Amino acid sequence: MRHYADRIAVIDDLANRPHDCDILLDQNLYDQTQKRYINLVPPACRLFLGPQYALLRNEFYPVRAALPPRTGQIRSVLIFFGGSDLTNETEKTLTALQMLNLGGIRIDVVVGRNNRYIDRIRDICSAMPKTTLHCQTNNMAELMAAADVAIGAGGTTTWERCFLGLPSLTVIVADNQREVTEMAAKAGVTVNLGLSSHVTAKNIAQALQGALDDPGRMCRMSANAMKIMGTYAPPEQHPLVRQILEEKHA
Hints:
Helix content: 25-40%
Organism: Acetonema longum DSM 6540
Strand content: 15-25%
Order of helices and strands: EEEHEHEHEHEHEHEHHH
Number of domains: 2
Binding site for substrate: 57, 160
CATH topology of the largest domain: Rossmann fold
CATH superfamily of the largest domain: Glycogen Phosphorylase B
Shape: elongated
Protein name: Pseudaminic acid biosynthesis-associated protein PseG
Radius of gyration: 19 Å
Pfam families: Glyco_tran_28_C
Distance between the termini: 21 Å
Number of strands: 9
Strand order of the largest sheet: 6-5-4-7-8-9
GO molecular function: hexosyltransferase activity
CATH architecture of the largest domain: 3-Layer(aba) Sandwich
Largest sheet: 6 strands, parallel
């Protein structure tokens, strides 16, 4: 790559191979984050490590700026397990919610157009009160801001939820989500329900009931989530963007 570019930026989250780069971004949360890239990047490489450097879609920034304080009371639940949700955690979660007396709680369910279970999910949502199905939505930030707790998978969505101070119950649906989800739970920003193959609808129902019964814990999770994401700044002021622009004009 040095034959084609004077300055190289890399986005990585594995820390298992060397990079000849000048800037490296790893937006995930790990133990001993600062040591992950020792001997994997040049000594002068500028590192941006941790969720405070997460690259989020532009839609999240104005929503964060207008976000009201969270009270910990749960009046709205958001369910989102990614666009495809191959193991159908969405239906499992809806089954869990049917086990509880949710009263007037609003439920928003988000799926992608390629979800193979969408017809079944649509039928279930239609039969549940105050439940709305969103397919291939483009207002995810608004749905997260309106929710009081999210139930979903790990991965990049973890940091989107944290950016908006949204407490969550997380099901690990892929092996590469395991460490990040465990660290997020350790940081007090989510409840780690474990691997999807081991999580039952009853487990989800019990975890959600626990959240309903403990608004103080939900408030603490929200505060922890906002804290690990760092100081709010619009995308053009992202430290990585500023670094690249400064070097470009140096």
